[in-house]
C-alpha cells in the first residue's frame, strides 16, 4: 500500500474511533486516550493527523456529508433522499451520531463548531435550485425551510434515539417529511416524490452500484493504458 | 404563613433551583450540593421533599405542564397555544429548559424517565378531541401527530437554543407550526388559527388575567362571609 493511501486509511480509522467515543460519552467526558484505544493506532499516528481533542471533533464534523448521492430530475427528491439516507445510516454510522451529539453540546461547540451550518448550506442550495425550477410553492424561502428541516429532523432523530434506540428512525423521518412537504413542494411535484420508509436504503444501494461501476470503468480504462 | 403553605413554597423553590442546575450542567454533572446552594434552603428542608438527585429530576419533570391555559372553541388552537406558550416561556423558565435537557440525557433518563410521554399524552388528548370534532384532515392519526410534534418542536427549540440562545425560538416554533398544520388541520380550521410569533405572550397574559379574576372573586366571596 502506498504511503499516502495508508495515511488516508489511518486518518479515517482515527476519525471513526473518535466518532464512536464522542457518540457514546459526549465531548467533555471523551478523552484522547479512549480514542487512541478504540482506534488501535499509535499515539504518533493519531497526533500526526489531529493535534488535540478539539481537532478530532472538527474532523468528525467535516466528514458528515462525504456521501455522494445520485442526482434527480426533481430537486425536491434530492432533499428527501438526503434526509432518508441520513436516517438509514444513523443506526450504523457513529460519524453521523457523533455529529448530532457534538452539535448539541452547548459548551463544546463554542470550541469546535457544529455540523448544522454544513447541513443548512447543503439543503439551502438544493431547495434554492428547486425554487428556481418552480418545484416549490411561491411563499417558500429556501434558507428558512433549510433551517426548519435541520432543526426538526434533528429533533425527530433524537426522539427516535431516546424512545426506540433509533429502531424506528426511518419511519419517524418519513412521517415528518409527509407532514412538512405539502407546505413546501408544489402539488405536481409532491405526487411524484418517493418518501417511503425504505427510500434511504434503496438510494444508498443505488449510490453503491454507481460507484462500483465507476471504479470498474476506471479499472478497465487503466489496464489497457 | 401556614405550615402547609410554607412547605409548598419550599418545595417549589427547591425544584426551581434543581432546574437551574440541571439546565446549566446536565444531570450527571449536577450535584445535590449545587442545588442546595442555589435554593438557599437547609439540607433538612431539601431532603424532607426529595431524598435523592433522581427524585429531584423526577420532581422537575412532573411540573412541566402545571400552567393552565384558556380553553378555545377550536381545539387545534389549543395545540398551537400549548406550543407557542412553551416557546415564550423557555428563555425565562429553567423548569422547561431542564425538562428538555433531562429528557435528552440518554444515561440519566433510564433512572428518572422523561417529560416527553406527558407532552405526547397531553397533545394526543387535544388532537383526539379535534379529530372527533372534524377539525383535522381525515388521514390524521392523533398519537402519530402528537409524537411528531413533540420530536420536531424539541428539535426546533434546540436549534434556537444553540444558534441564538433562544432569542428567536418563538419565530422558529411559529415557522414549524405554519409548515406542519396544513397537513393536520382542515382548511376551514386552518384559516381561523392564530400562529403569530407573539401568540404565546398574549395567551399567557390572558391566562394571568383569568387567574387574577378568579382569585379576586374568591377574595370578594371570602370577605363578606
Automatic annotation (TrEMBL), chains A, B:
Protein name per the record: ScbR family autoregulator-binding transcription factor
Domain HTH tetR-type, chain residue ranges per copy: 8-68
Record field: compositional bias (Low complexity): 214-225
Family annotation (PROSITE patterns): HTH_TETR_1, HTH_TETR_2
Gene3D superfamilies the record matches: Tetracycline Repressor, domain 2 (1.10.357.10)
InterPro entries given in the database record: ArpA-like, DNA-bd_HTH_TetR-type_CS, Homeodomain-like_sf, HTH-type_TetR-like_transc_reg, HTH_TetR, Tet_transcr_reg_TetR-rel_C_sf
Residue range(s) of DNA binding per entry: 31-50
Ranges annotated as spanning the membrane: none
Region (Disordered), start-end ranges: 206-225
One Pfam assignment: TetR_N
UniProt keywords, alphabetically: DNA-binding, Transcription, Transcription regulation
NCBIfam families (UniProt xref): ScbR_bind_reg
Domain of life where this protein originates: Bacteria
